Amino acid sequence: MNIHILRSKAEIDRAVADLFIEQVKANPNSVLGLATGSTPLGVYALLAKDHKENHTDYHNVTTVNLDEYIGLPDGHPESYKEFMKRNLFNHINVDFNRVHIPSIQGTYEESCKAYNDLLNQFVPDIQLLGIGANGHIGFNEPGTKADSKTHTVLLAEKTRLDNARFFNHIDEVPTHAITMGIQNILDAKRIVLIATGASKADAIYKMITGEITESLPASFLQKHSNVDIFLDKEAAKLL
Ligand code: GLP
């Protein structure tokens, strides 16, 4: 793991946005693995700004998102589909036919298989990740197996509580989600994880220095040979 401890979130956003811009410029047909949550917002804002000013071309790029809530009505502002449109896709020239976010179409089993088939076809050149305070990546909660593929999950109470800030009430936070599995994430050619703030410090410490264990899913990233971790001082304070 390459650990980068930078002075501010702004510096992290700049460094990570530049990695994505370089990737797209080097290969206009790149596959980008994208994430949601508050962590990637700064990166997405910089990609949007760069597109506006420098016209970086996303028309032939394919995107695959990590995860999505189950059960939110179509168009709900907190669905990850709407999040991605609002924060990134509406501001760059993606071809929406090449934009992929997992969703339930038919049975859960059929939906997971369809997304897995897609991921086999479109392996991310670069996968962006945040991390949950309990060490989850995507929505791979503690207990998820290393060889897991796209699956549906019952969200941990901690995750629902952490994400309740985006909803009016905790009861509105979905109980289930569909997510890429750990194996799908590890299939990416390159992984870039961002963590900022003291609430992530414990998970970051265990992810980097601890054993590889299902109880901290992010620790599986130790098995990947091309991972960059971008941290601010608070998230790195236990290292
Ligand atoms: C959610 C997402 C994760 C994200 C995590 C951290 O649960 N499914 O992909 O990494 O939250 O969120 P935040 O970036 O808001 O701290």
Automatic annotation (TrEMBL):
Family: Belongs to the glucosamine/galactosamine-6-phosphate isomerase family. NagB subfamily.
Documented EC number(s): 3.5.99.6
Catalytic reactions of this protein: alpha-D-glucosamine 6-phosphate + H2O = beta-D-fructose 6-phosphate + NH4(+)
This protein's record includes keyword Hydrolase: yes
InterPro entries: Glc/Gal-6P_isomerase (IPR006148), Glucosamine6P_isomerase (IPR004547), NagB/RpiA_transferase-like (IPR037171)
Protein name: Glucosamine-6-phosphate deaminase
Pathway annotation: Amino-sugar metabolism; N-acetylneuraminate degradation; D-fructose 6-phosphate from N-acetylneuraminate: step 5/5
Described purpose of this protein according to its UniProt entry: Catalyzes the reversible isomerization-deamination of glucosamine 6-phosphate (GlcN6P) to form fructose 6-phosphate (Fru6P) and ammonium ion.
Active site feature: D67, N134, H136, E141
Molecular function GO labels: glucosamine-6-phosphate deaminase activity
Record key words, sorted: Carbohydrate metabolism, Hydrolase
Pfam families noted in UniProt: Glucosamine_iso
Protein species of origin: Paracholeplasma vituli
CDD domains: GlcN6P_deaminase
NCBIfam families, per database record: nagB
Domain Glucosamine/galactosamine-6-phosphate isomerase: 14-225
